[in-house]
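Q: Joint fold for the lines below.
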Amino acid sequence: MSWFSNYARSSVGAKHIMAVTGLALALFVFVHMLGNFAVYAGQDAMNGYAETLKSTGAFLWLARLGLLATVVIHIAAAVRLSVLNKAARPEKYRMFKPIRSSFHARVMPWTGLIVFAFIVYHLMHFTLGTFYYDYYSAVQELPGGATRHDVYSMVVQGFQIPAVALSYVVAMVLLCFHLAHGMTSFFQSLGLNHPKYNAIIRYAGPVYAAIILIGNSSIPIAILAGAVDLPGA
Amino acid sequence: MKLKLHVWRQKGPYTPGEMVQYLAEGINEHMSFLEMLDVVNEDLISKGEEPIAFDSDCREGICGMCSMVINGRPHGPDQGTTVCQLHMRRFRDGDTIYIEPWRARAFPIIRDLVVDRSSFDKIMQAGGYVTANCGSAPDANAIPVAKERADAAFAAAACIGCGACVAACPNGAAMLFTAAKLSHLHHLPQGQPERLRRTQHMVNAMDAAGFGNCTNLYECEAACPKEIDRDVIAMMNRDYAKASFSHRD
Ligand code: HEM
Ligand code: FES
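A: Joint structure:
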């Protein structure tokens, strides 16, 4: 396997790994967003969706471990490459004018790190219940006396706090900037280019990022605006 | 024309440098940028000071020796132009101009604006050639090459190895250079037999020389005096994966 470690450590191979893991994360973000839209279908739909996910047991843990590994690999490669890139220009220019690159593309490591901090916060909020435990521990009573985790009320009550809703929207804006570059960039990293498709590829990132931004931010905004509310409210 | 210059002065590779101010007077707007520096240097010499060291050779945009960052742009403000082909009419009387060397770990400064670009030679030595039998020259047109392929090979072969791509890259990467050399050979039949091995060896030599890693910002493409396209890098990225996953060395 020494060939693989040589490949993974090379400049081009490391980019391939960033591209593949970044793409996997971006696709997860999309599917996750589609799942979250269940909130618009009301308490039963949302809690049913959550219950179904939980009931997959081993499969759920496999998916979680896979995602964790993907994030760790993406970040490890990103940090390593960023450090190498800084070292490749020890003395800075006194005057330098970038002309073709956009600002958000040059700050990928920073938007990435902030998004990572957000992921930790998000997991503590909704998956672990580290804070707002009262909301987290809500249960829905089902006809027949059974109960299940009331994810719907947890989310609604969470986002009724303006600072929490705002923090999610800000995180989505940063993720949007990360994806606006990333989802175009991965084509080039993997060598997937063709004169016929290059014009479309250029817009793939910004369009994908806009879909994620609008889709995900709509949830805290709808809740804050009262369009989505607690059952019976 | 009268200009205020801020120029990077550095005595040697291991001495710290600094920006020094000079006044350039009596400059004709039809002079090239290098001729303007020649005038400044004549003046410095007559005052008994050290002239500003900079590289140049052909002064017609084909050798790739001239190399300086002018007002934050490698080779100055014009698209697709080397410094030697940049003219003073591009500036206005009284302008302030910042002049710096290429800055990259893999291009150590020798003196003032002169940098050591032998790391490019190392990349070329790792595979920037084709292996062929000696003997009499082959017949012309014995190997047919389609027009589109010849054009693509030629577009990449226009690279003069000046290093502006590295100077412009916020990551100090040399991907445009390395990929241009690969793309030049890989659009031709003669480049095919050693294609994957060549890609692997040249990329590895590039990494070993201490260049940075591409983040697809394309500042290299914007700075290239020969306007080499980013597509050459995509081709290299593709071939490197093929080489790594299929080659045994
Ligand atoms: C939801 C989480 C994330 C998603 C969906 C994501 C997605 C992506 C994508 C699609 C790319 C493009 C790969 C390429 O250029 O070929 C990328 C690149 C990158 N990501 Fe992430 N990423 C995420 C989290 C992070 C985190 C936590 C970091 C932490 C440092 C990070 C740092 C980077 C860096 C430095 C690049 C390279 C930028 C470049 O090549 O210009 N990302 N990411
Ligand atoms: S001096 Fe030869 S290219 Fe400028």
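Q: Anything notable?
A: The pocket of protoporphyrin IX containing FE (ligand 1) is lined by residues A 15, 18-19, 22-23, 25-26, 29, 74-75, 78-79, 82, 105, 108-109, 112-113, 115-116, 175, 178, 181-183, 185-186, 189; B 215-216 (CB under 6 Å). The radius of gyration of chain A is 21 Å.
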